[in-house]
Amino acid sequence: MMQKLQRFGGAMFTPVLLFAFSGIILAIAIMLQNTLIVGDIATAGTMWANFWSIVESGGWTVFNQMELLFIIGLPLGLAKKASGRAALESVVVYMTFNNFVGKILELMGPTFGVDFAQEAGGDSGIKMIAGIKTLDTNLIGAILIAAIVVWLHNRFFETKLPDFLGIFQGSSLVVMIGFFLMLPLAFLTAWGWPIIQGLIGSMQGFLASSGTLGVWLYVFLERLLIPTGMHHFIYQPFIYGPAVVEGGITAYWLNNLSDFASSTVPLKEVFPAGGFGLHNVSKIFAPLGIAAAFYATADPAKKKKTLALLIPTALTAVLAGITEPFEFTFLFIAPQLFLIHAALAATLGATVYAFGVVGDVGSGLITMLTQFIIPMSINHLGTVLTLVGTGLAFSVIYFFVFRFAILKFDIKTPGRELEEEVKMYSKKDYRERQANGKTVPAKGGAYASSAAHYLEGLGGAANIGDVNNCATRLRVSVKDENLVKEDGFFKAAGAHGVVRKGKAFQIIVGLDVPQVRDAFEDEMKSTGTLVDTQSQAEPTI
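Now predict its structure.
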């Protein structure tokens, strides 16, 4: 079950990757339409304002169609084969479901306590999805339907029908079964979802009023669950779902960015639920203190090489908010340090919230500047300075806490290893290793060599079950875990580490993981182990 949940969590991250760019574009476009920031040039009706209004409309694309992104993204990550066809099936079945719900409520809305004649949006509980007026089941509905379609696809996609029914096999069969399943599910949704919407509303009020303790617990769990890959289930309902505000914190914050920036009322008063957007604060400030502690405790002869290891990983965390490669550097060496990190990150989030900081601060310095620091500096400069000052203070706290723990317990962090040198493996190192005959060279693009190396380390193509990935990790299930090599073998090709959970393995690759996964699957196809069924499962007419 843990393996399946990890795989599901990784698949959920696929559409999330699209939100960062859109968020930055929206923040910039909204800022440049604010007269308090750029002056009268941004007055409504000017060419300047019209241009940035057009840009803003494009930036809302992924947020306004979030359900469709998950409907497509989950099958791409979870389908065992022919994932492209699974995504198509998922869209068709989801649209069918929404059409059923819309028509049921149009004809029998009062029966289910729904006024379907009201305008979509707001507090109506109704939404337009791809042109269909339906109940706003948000990400919960999208994820549920996508999961059903993935199960149908994996179960029935390759079912062989008699030749005279051949036109109905493959994707057609999956959609046909989905059609009949969606009809009773639509009636069930029309009856039960308004009740669930009421419960969600009550939960929103409770969480929004849970105060500093609620923020601390939220951030602590989100950080603590990173090694398991389950942290997506913690933050996504808050950031992109309806846990505290309808539509999620990110969309709500961007939609009201100009109003928040123009208001002189303290941010905590106008958006108290924004405390649950502070889980990313530690991504900027923690790496500074941790990296400094690693460098300070490194052996004098290894300090330069340790610095070469720390600078790129810390910069990646600070600028882009991708902290997993950095965190896994010490997670595998000393898990107790990761527990300390989770507690300090939670304390940082709770502290800035207690001091009045709320909102979607972004997952890195770039997004923090565009979505918080620059726009909020107009009327909330004190709040901005509080965030930065408190964050830097915690960087110092991180430094002293980690330095003390490393020296006290003699933890072998980078630069303190027993080996002669701190080694960072490059592509050149790997090619030299290949030349020595230790690995069979791989054909293909720039990521083929690493993919072939990881495949060998996982016991070869015949030992692979499922393949998936999240932002930085290649997630693989194997048939025999005893065939998987030691962590050092994977690090030799540039991996940051390996997470092992029974037959489920996560190779910490970094930001190149989508390309590495493609090369990994290409390598499996070349052995004949991974069969491309997309061109053979359905008849040609």
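The radius of gyration is 25 Å.
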